[in-house]
Design a protein that fits this description.
Layout (H helix, E strand, L loop, with lengths): L13 E2 L3 E5 L5 H9 L1 H7 L1 H4 L5 H11 L4 E6 L5 E11 L4 E8 L9 H16 L4 E7 L3 H10 L2 E12 L2 E11 L7 H5 L7
Helix pairs in contact: 1-4, 5-6
């Protein structure tokens, strides 16, 4: 779905080279609903996504709910176009851990490196500002593109829930991956805060 972003201003929380993270906008509910109903997107997210019936109203309610947590829209810097969203599905402030979720469902902009940058921006936010020690995620064994993306970013496979996902009569592992703070090098936030002599 094409939308005219010229008349709407979006806030830029963390800015990369090509994309930025912005607070979730409820006005984007139609675009998000289209992404969530795209089978290529929903199958990558798992059974909760591809078995759900998502209409515009339910997607609007969902966006309202995740606005209260640390979730961001991912937008192109050049024209503010919506690519999807990334955020922390779970946080443990005592043990300083976070679990991320990624939904990049704009078909025009897949496999262009935007996902890599968006996840790195989220990691920078999590490690640099939220002071997480460990950030993890789950990925389905059949989603090789996502697995390879996370591995390239620096996530390490730490375990598997064997045969924990079933689709089309076949079972697949849910792969658990994580990253430690010392394994991540801040680029975006550190560069922005250099004037404060933070190390």
């Amino acid at each position: 779905m094409e939308r005219n972003n010229e008349t709407k201003k979006y806030l830029k929380k963390i800015v990369g080279e090509k994309v930025y993270l912005s607070p979730i906008s409820i006005d984007d509910f139609e675009e998000y609903a289209e992404m969530a109903n795209d089978i290529n997107v929903s199958v990558g997210l798992g059974s909760i996504a591809y078995t759900s019936i998502i209409d515009f109203e339910s997607e609007k309610e969902f966006l309202v709910s995740i606005k209260k947590s640390k979730n961001f829209a991912v937008r192109l810097l050049e024209n503010d176009e919506l690519l999807g969203n990334v955020g922390f599905n779970l946080e443990d402030s005592i043990n300083r851990t976070g679990v991320i979720g990624v939904m990049l469902g704009n078909p025009k902009h897949q496999r262009k490196g935007y996902g890599t940058e968006a996840v790195n921006l989220l990691l920078d936010y999590g490690f640099s500002f939220l002071n997480f020690r460990n950030i993890s995620l789950n990925v389905f064994e059949y989603n090789e593109a996502a697995y390879n993306l996370y591995k390239k970013i620096g996530f390490k496979e730490v375990g598997r829930l064997r045969k924990a996902a079933e689709i089309l009569g076949e079972t697949y592992d849910i792969i658990i991956m994580d990253m430690l703070r010392e394994e991540f090098q801040s680029v975006y936030i550190k560069r922005k805060l250099e004037k404060y002599n933070l190390k």
